[in-house]
Amino acid sequence: METLAALSQYLISGLTNGAIYALIALGFGIIFNATHIINFAQGEFVMLGALCAISLHQAFPSLPVAFVGAVLLVTLLGLLFERLALRPVKDRSPLTLIIITVGGAVLLKGLAMLWWGKEAYNLPPFSGAVPLSFGPATILPQNLWVLGVAALLLAGLEAFFRLTLTGKAMRACAYNPVAARLVGIPAARMVQLSFGLSAALGAAGGILIAPLTLGVYDMGTMLGLKGFSAAILGGLGSSLGGVLGGLLLGVAESLASGLISSGYRDAVAFFILLVVLFVRPQGLLGGRS
Amino acid sequence: MTWRRLALWGGFAVVLALLPLVLRNDYYLSLLNFIGIHTILVVGLNLLMGYAGQISLGHAAFFGVGAYTSGILSATYGVNPWLAMVAGLGLAGLLAFLIGIPALKLRGYYLAMATLGFGVIVYIFFVQAQRLTGGPSGLSGIPSLSLAGFAFHTPLRLYALIWGATLGLLALSAGLVDSRLGRALRALHDSEAAAESLGINTQRLKLLIFVWSALYASLAGSLYAHTLNFIAPSSFDIMFSIKLVTMVVVGGMASIWGSLLGAGVLTVLPELLVVFHDFEVVIFGAILMVVMIFLPRGLVRGLLDLWEYRHFRREGASRG
């Protein structure tokens, strides 16, 4: 019974983290599909989402306002990032784009450190901190919030891509940018939109996880890297793959830190990343390599 | 052309030999020693980034592998420092080989992420493996290098050792770039498909240069460990990898002398500016973005290009 309780506890915390990784992984996938860029600043959007929500909540103590306000702010930043840092670039080789987004990540992190300092901030849980017990396991209400809101966001995103004209246009650009342009889709605007969308997803992930992990200026690097590992594990560019990769990674990490050693917790994701790159670089659900 | 180049290298060697006579201060000499170590790292990374068009965001890890192998073997197990250095080279080369095989098969982004992930794992290992590495508080008591009873433990003696190595590696790299291998590298940078069609085995070439640049980093790490006699994990984190990339970018990609410049400028700048410490991360990020967006050929060549462009435009305007 003891081990069962422990295992289900690991599973729940793993799924919670995994849902956040999935949101970040989808952000990577959306930008990759639109531009074939890997945005190394993705994790910083997560950090900014968390810290903006915390500051907004301190100024105006309403969680819905803080959530929506922070997501909007970070979305705007994502749009600006594309406009100012990536669109003017003439040499579009991967090397140049990697360096620019890495520079952007470092810059955003540094600015956050100057603005918020190095201390960690707390965001209150969305609905109390009294643990609920489900059989052998106890669940914090925030775990349910994370899983529920993440599932809603993913469903909304899928509906956006399948049902709306803009979503279909973005998918067309991902399949074949030249053909999409030929039928009159403004490709540049779709690229910008992809940055806005993935910034919004990242910010939402950051706000959801903030009550569990605190918000601090350097949380983004690790979350971004894990989101990328999740995206690679599931298959870069595949949305189902991103979700699957995120959840698998979260659970694997949680089990490894519970059963083997918590000190190496953060190394698990990269170990999985390297193994996937070795064995199946197209990921679990990716068709093409 | 060859004579001019020979004169350039000779002049550089003479300047290096004379510098300690001018700067008789231990602080300046130590600063120069760090510039030398950084130059070795940056020229190795530049071979990979500038010439082969691949990127490593985890070069600090290879630097750390060299430093810790040297440090642990010589301080804890009493191995001869020179042998420990060779062991570090072997380990760094092997690790680069193992990471490089899967990552280099794929496009640019994968090597960037794989090396970033590798860098994080190695850093976590340095912090966590306390019994081996001393953990977060570091590893002390690393002996200095010595040659037939002559110990390299003063800044001046270290200057001779480090800059001797730096000069040798700069010359070796310049030779490499001008060789058949260097031409193959540039072909690879311009177009992988075209290079393949000319019979260049691009996978093997990329792997070779990746391992080669890891060896430079490991050597620099060993020199660093035996210079400071103390190492701690914080010197080998991701931010240091990004600083190295910034040095390459500022000096100019695919430029051997640029590597020296980039390492020099970005090692001296934090020492000169007091405000730099608080803004360090912001400044490095801003430099990376601005240089890559506006002056992708590096600071010096970029500014020269701009000047020429304006100069010609003005001439054209006055004529027309």
List keywords for this structure.
heterodimer, A: 289 residues, mainly alpha, 2% strand, B: 320 residues, two-stranded antiparallel sheet
Instruction: Note the main sheet of chain A.
Output: 2 strands, antiparallel
Largest interface by Cβ-Cβ < 8 Å = A-B, 45 and 47 residues
List the secondary-structure elements of chain B in sequence, H or E.
HHHHHHEEEHHHHEHHHH
Number of helices of chain A: 11
Shape category of chain A: globular
Report the mean per-residue pLDDT of chain B as an integer.
Answer: 88
Number of strands of chain B: 4
What's the N-to-C terminus distance of chain A? 44 Å
Strand order of the largest sheet of chain B: 1-4
Which percent range fits the helix content of chain B?
over 70%
Count of individual helical segments of chain B:
14
C-alpha Rg of chain B, in Å?
A: 20 Å
Beta percentage of chain A is under 5%
What is the gyration radius of chain A calculated from CA atoms?
19 Å
Nearest-integer average pLDDT of chain A: 89
What is the structure about, briefly put?
The complex is a heterodimer of chains A (289) and B (320). By secondary structure, chain A is mostly helical.
Task: Describe it.
The complex is a heterodimer of chains A (289) and B (320). By secondary structure, chain A is mainly alpha-helical. Chain A has eleven helices and two strands; from the N terminus they run ααααββααααααα. Chain A has helices at 2-35, 42-59, 63-86, 94-116, 141-163, 165-175, 177-182, 187-213, 219-234, 239-259, 265-279, and strands spanning 132-134, 137-139. A two-stranded antiparallel ribbon of chain A has the order 1-2. The longest helix of chain A is centred in the N-terminal third of the chain and has 34 residues, at 2-35. The relative contact order of chain A is 0.21. By secondary structure, chain B is mainly α. Chain B is globular and about 70 Å long. Chains A and B meet through helix 4, helix 9 and helix 11 of A and helix 4, helix 5, helix 11 and helix 13 of B.
